[in-house]
Amino acid sequence: MKKDSLVIHGGETIDKFTGAVNIPVYLSSTFKQPEFGVSLGYEYARTNNPTREALEKLIADLEGGSRGFGFSSGMSAISTILNLFKSGDKILINNNVYGGTFRVISKVFSNYKLNYDIIEDFNELDFSTVSEDVKGIFIETPTNPLLSITDIEKISEEAHKKNILVIVDNTFMSPYFQNPLNLGADIVIHSATKYLVGHSDIVAGLAVVKDKELGEKIGFLQNAIGAILSPFDSYMLIRGIKTLSVRLEKHEENAKKISRYLNNHELIEKVYYPGLKEHLNHEIQKKQASGYGGIISFKLKEGCDFKKFINSLKLITFGESLGGVESLLCHPATMTHASLPKDLRDRIGIDERLLRLSVGIENSEDLIAEIGRALIISKGED
């Protein structure tokens, strides 16, 4: 089944109890057992719930996995997965990983002696230098916010030779454009708050695995830790996913136009978008994904006032998050990546002139006109 059909018909699309076309919201914390020793598959809602189960089957289908898991946020998903590791283990992470991911690894799990190393470019990693205590690799591709691309298949192949678990955050691409499990990754994670729900109205996280034994381990942790997704938010996420294909196509269509506009603008120093042929890893992205997504980061030239640019926006919303139908602009250095040490931010280019644009599904001409006007104002030429 093609992706644009699977988003609508994947998983359990019809309620198995009533035949309802939309999976109902099962608001019950507990379930009656028919008799002693007999279960209908649902006992306590932390362990399982029919609405969440339908969502988990849907995301497993979309990612080509055997089992999916719904969490109360993307960070809940990441935190639960990190519990697969033990004290003394080390994980490797991108140098411009999402600030929340860096924070939980460096400030929370480090207290339990889970160590980490920052990798400048996974594509250049020499696995002969990787120490024996490395048990996991956590990849964002594209990264947030610099849109760096990692060759998932290459890294997975090398990592598995050393029994290293490969975890891929697929938030920016969504399963519509990229399927890391099919490229060799062990676990795929989503902040479903973003493109999957697509309307900026819930907070949610998802994880998917292909290996059933690994799925059992994560299922145990999901139940034991209990950071589960509510039935209502599960319903909202199923509903949002049904329009994923049409939304992503429009997000990308707009992003391509805007990235080309920015790339040719005299007040822009650099554009970060994997859909541009000038992007360092454009060919890797082209090989492993079916699209380039709707996120663009760009750096204003010196002399442009980023605050004036931001404050002049009317159509584009200035705020946290991404992946909604509305265009959202954020300032990574003071928002999403404030948790990264300043010396690291400065070294990799997350400075005050860097802006990240989550391109919405508005009219592209309106968005370009807004950006052009804001750029003129940022230069003090209003």
TrEMBL record:
Record-level Gene Ontology MF annotations: cystathionine gamma-lyase activity; cystathionine gamma-synthase activity; pyridoxal phosphate binding
InterPro entries: Cys/Met-Metab_PyrdxlP-dep_enz, Cys_met_metab_PP, PyrdxlP-dep_Trfase, PyrdxlP-dep_Trfase_major, PyrdxlP-dep_Trfase_small
Keyword Cell inner membrane: no
Record Pfam families: Cys_Met_Meta_PP
Cross-referenced CDD domains: CGS_like
GO biological process: cysteine biosynthetic process via cystathionine; methionine biosynthetic process; transsulfuration
Domain of life: Bacteria
Residues found modified as N6-(pyridoxal phosphate)lysine: K194
Family: Belongs to the trans-sulfuration enzymes family.
Name of the protein in question: Cystathionine gamma-lyase
